[in-house]
Amino acid sequence: MAAGFLLVITVVAGLAEADVVSALGGGGGFQRVLTLERAFPVEERVELEAVKARDRARHSRMLQSYPGGIVDFSVGGTSDPYAVGLYYTKVRLGSPPREFNVQIDTGSDILWVTCSSCNDCPLNSGLGIPLNFFDAATSSTVSPISCSDSICASIVQIASAECSNEGNLCNYSFQYGDGSGTSGFYMSDILYFDSILGTSLITNSSAPIVFGCTTSLFGDLTKSDRAVDGIFGFGQQGLSVISQLSSRGITPKVFSHCLRGEGSGGGILVLGEILDPRIVYTPLVPSQPHYNLYLQSIAVNGQVLPIDQAVFTTSGNQGTIVDSGTTLAYLVEGAYDPLVAAITAAVSTSVKPIISKGNQCYLISASVGEMFPTVAFNFAGGASMVLRPIDYLVRMGFVDGAATWCIGFVKVQNQGTTILGDLVLKDKIFVYDLAHQRIGWADYDCTSSVNVSITSGKDEYVNAGQLSVSRSSSTSVLFKLMHDTYNNYLVLHLLVLIGFLFL
């Protein structure tokens, strides 16, 4: 057949059997012809990437009808403020996809990456990772969000967007707690991820999401020493990635992380629920922009400290929040002073307390675990977060041959917010169960594999790691999420095991 042929299809509808035969035979019946045109003209050379991009866009639309599964991300970085001081992951955006290293931040909502037109953006990073810029001109699936778009109107209502007549683009400009900030405009494009859909099926998946394309940075975000390509906000608002994907049934309305504190750091991050029988849960304070918890008391070696309960009240800018975007931990003055005094009183007599640059520090010659007390943060629902000395102390170096360790809590003057950052979040499973408005945690070796559950639009939980299932469930899948060492930091891999059990 000659090149450039016309594709035709005969459509027969609503005909009796005899009419169908007649139509197909070309005699006397009703013949209906639908003309199809090529998406790519045969006379023109088409790059393979253009075809792949068209298929990816098609697949992302199809994905929205799939049952939900979990999504895993790689994790790099550490909580060590003198090394990396943050945790980051990789996201792939655009068609063809491009990879970006973005900080994991539960204290904000928006996923944003730097645009090719960004001003004051670092060109290299002291973390030893390549920096990339999102170039809308090179993505075949990108779509800017205009001021007239209903999405922009909903964003403006939560005060993270603004519109101007210039370019008719939905803009944003916001500032973080450390004084740094970013501005740019919202776009829609394809996000790519590894997803477990249903029973032990892992697939390379994608979905369109709205994210920020940053054109300007200020504050610490302009510095190169710990520069990344953007920030991955895991907040509760509708524009966060977890909210966008869960609202379409692509992922469960829960995410989890396990951040490794020792060695080269890294860890595990999933849009899904990590399972462990030791996890304790506490409710979230409702109607708050952050992950606020009801902190009720603080204890040292089991003894509750005499702290005025008013300092723990959630109101305005006061309260207690969990924030993976914060390196250290911050404690309001009314709780900080009693805590430091109790720790100092409880340390071994061989420990020498000193003040260094305004910080409470200690000179020690042995393991901190043997010489310092445990600290417990007690939350509503009977959930306690017990901190080992390594969870609240930061190593500062040596003085006269003795190791110097300092309290990792920073005093917040007067009224303010207590922030639990990576210092205390590390070496624990954390589950952010947005569907049930609660957060859970358990001590864990984050170099080990974890068990995860799959929900497929039903209330089904897969008890991974067990070879038996509840009688209320018809199928069990056994698999674990693991991580491995790659290029000097830990990258998440999925190890899928592997079988079905039917009752």
TrEMBL record:
Q: What GO MF terms are annotated? A: aspartic-type endopeptidase activity
Superkingdom of this entry's organism?
A: Eukaryota
Q: Which PROSITE patterns match?
A: PEPTIDASE_A1
Q: Which region is the signal sequence?
A: 1-18
Where does the Peptidase A1 domain lie? Answer: 87-442
Enzyme active site = D105, D323
Q: Which UniProt keywords apply?
A: Aspartyl protease, Glycoprotein, Hydrolase, Protease, Signal
| One Pfam match | TAXi_N
> InterPro entries, from UniProt?
Aspartic_peptidase_A1, Pepsin-like_plant, PEPTIDASE_A1, Peptidase_aspartic_dom_sf, TAXi_C, TAXi_N
Q: From the UniProt record, give one GO term of the biological process aspect.
A: proteolysis
- UniProt cross-references to PANTHER family, sorted A to Z: ASPARTYL PROTEASES (PTHR13683), EUKARYOTIC ASPARTYL PROTEASE FAMILY PROTEIN (PTHR13683:SF875)
| UniProt record similarity statement | Belongs to the peptidase A1 family.
Listed name of the protein: Peptidase A1 domain-containing protein
**Species annotation:** Erythranthe guttata
